[in-house]
Amino acid sequence: MAVPARRTSKAKKNKRRTHKGLTVPGLTKNKATGEYQMSHRIAPDGTYKNKQVL
């Protein structure tokens, strides 16, 4: 079984893990109600792109 020749430093390890940060979800403002909602989702009042779907 292969064994690493040297120990991985803290800096090298942390650089490898930089992509694990949190991202902000895409929010849009609903024109009908004025509330923020997640993109590509139906609003609580049943509208999507200013059209009644439910």
Shape, per Cα inertia axes: rod-shaped
Secondary structure tally, helices = 1
Q: How does the helix and strand content classify structurally?
A: alpha+beta
- Please report the total strand number as a whole number: 4
State the major sheet: 2 strands, antiparallel
Mean pLDDT: 87
Please indicate the percent range of residues in DSSP E strands (runs of 2 or more): 15-25%
What share of the residues lie within helices?
10-25%
Radius of gyration: 22 Å
How far apart, in Å, are the first and last alpha carbons? 59 Å
Given as residue ranges, the uncertain stretches (5+ residues, pLDDT < 50) are: none
Order of strands, main sheet, comes to: 1-2
What order do the helices and strands come in, and which of them pair?
Layout: H1 10-16, E1 27-29, E2 36-38, E3 47-48, E4 51-52
Antiparallel strand pairs: 1-2, 3-4
Explain what the structure shows.
By secondary structure, this protein is of the alpha+beta class. The chain has a domain at 26-54. The protein has one helix at residues 10-16; strands at 27-29, 36-38, 47-48, 51-52. A two-stranded antiparallel ribbon has the order 1-2. The radius of gyration is 22 Å and the shape is rod-shaped. The chain starts with 9 loop residues before the first helix and ends with a strand. The mean pLDDT is 87.
